[in-house]
Amino acid sequence: MNKSSITLYSLSGLAAVGFPATALAAPVSPYADYGPLKTYAQSPIQSNSLTPLMRHGFSYTPGTVELYTTATIASVWAHTEEYNADYYQNALSIGSQWQINEKWLVALDYTWRFTANNHLDNVTTAFHDFFGIGQNGRDEVDDHSFDLSVPEYGIEIHDFNRETLGNAFTLYTSYQLLETERHGLSIGGSIYYNYVPSGPFETSNFEQAVQLNYGYRRDKHAFYAMLGLSYRNNDNVLVDIPYNTVALAAGVGYQYQLTPKHRLLAEYHIYEGTTDAASDLSQPSNEILLGYRYHFRHSAIEFSAVENIFNMDNSTDIAFTLGYRYRF
Q1: Nearest of 191, 189, 207 to residue 245 by alpha carbon
Q2: Exposed, middle or buried, 246 (CB in 10 Å: 0-12/13-18/19+)?
Q3: Residue 133 and residue 78 in contact, taking contact as beta carbons nearer than 8 Å
Q4: 153-178: per-residue pLDDT in tens?
Q5: Cα–Cα distance between 248 and 51 in angstroms, integer?
Q6: How, if at all, do strands 299-309 and 285-295 pair?
Q7: Angle at the Cα of 124 from the Cα atoms of 196 and 114, rounded to 5 degrees
Q8: What number of other Cβ atoms are within 10 A of residue 228's Cβ?
Q9: How many whole angstroms separate alpha carbon 227 and alpha carbon 27?
Q10: pLDDT at 275 over 90
Q11: Band (111; pLDDT cuts 50, 70, 90)
Q12: 3-state helix, strand, coil in the chain (%, to 5)
């Protein structure tokens, strides 16, 4: 019996005993497209609740599994007559996704979000000076502080370095509505549970979201778009102020393939204001993301920088994310 016959016989045997067809999928192609950046919302409230993540509008090869991990450091600064926020937030995430078949994908993510001194105040101040942007009061307070104040609601939290902001699990699944060579459209839903057992940010909240993901690709160019809606029935997200039950999110993104190994990415995310407790927090937050991705044969390293625009008092000053993604 030759080698080809042995191979066919083996595959037939696996099928006969009911081995999942997805396990026989073709191997992941080298330098495969990883889609949008694996970078979560960085606005203080949106980052500590369920906010739709920009996702690929196309499906992957059936049976494809991706494992990933990301680390994020961010600096929060907001100074208004209604509230003050000056602290660092950081996040570590691990997760996976599985393309079950041509239509269905499922993903699971765990994120630990916490405060710790990441020394970004100096970077932020230098950035604003270099581009001639006003400091908005940053130069009037000490660097590396941890202060959160909302006087109207009796919230005064200070010196909360090394506290947990969130322990969040997110389960996501999507269904492929349309897919051609150029266009991909999927619909997805998420359920989210966040539990902090003690400390100044003690909470237990359960949230849901639904989103549409669109993708377009042609040669070295790829375009992404997302429209999502989050729902929560628990007011306690980060601190005890009234939050809106539903919130919209949208985003667009672009990827350019320099070479098979090098990709440049740019994204714009907009998130509806999540609370009417303060005027600035009721307005949309806007985030610009710039990213770079380096591809190995079956994995990729990506780096992104996030800067808020338009409203300086309802989003993170600046944030950086480093991630590693592996597929098999």
Answers
A1: 207
A2: exposed
A3: no
A4: 888 999 999 999 999 999 999 999 99
A5: 9
A6: antiparallel
A7: 10
A8: 24
A9: 31
A10: no
A11: very high
A12: 15, 50, 35
d(CA 148, CA 76): 10
Nearest in space to 304 (alpha carbons), one of 285, 321, 326? 321
**160's tokens:** 């909360």
* 105, β-bridge pairs: 99, 174
Bridge partners for 147 per DSSP = 86, 158
Q: How far apart are CA 132 and CA 136, in angstroms?
A: 12
- Both tokens of 210, joined, read 């639904």
- CB-facing half-sphere around the CA of 99: CA atoms within 13 A: 24
Three-class SS state of 111: strand
Please name which of 64, 68, 140, 151 lies closest in space to residue 108, comparing C-alpha atoms.
68
The burial class, CB within 10 Å (0-12 / 13-18 / 19+), for 33 is middle
**Tally of helices (H runs) and strands (E runs) in the chain:** 3, 14
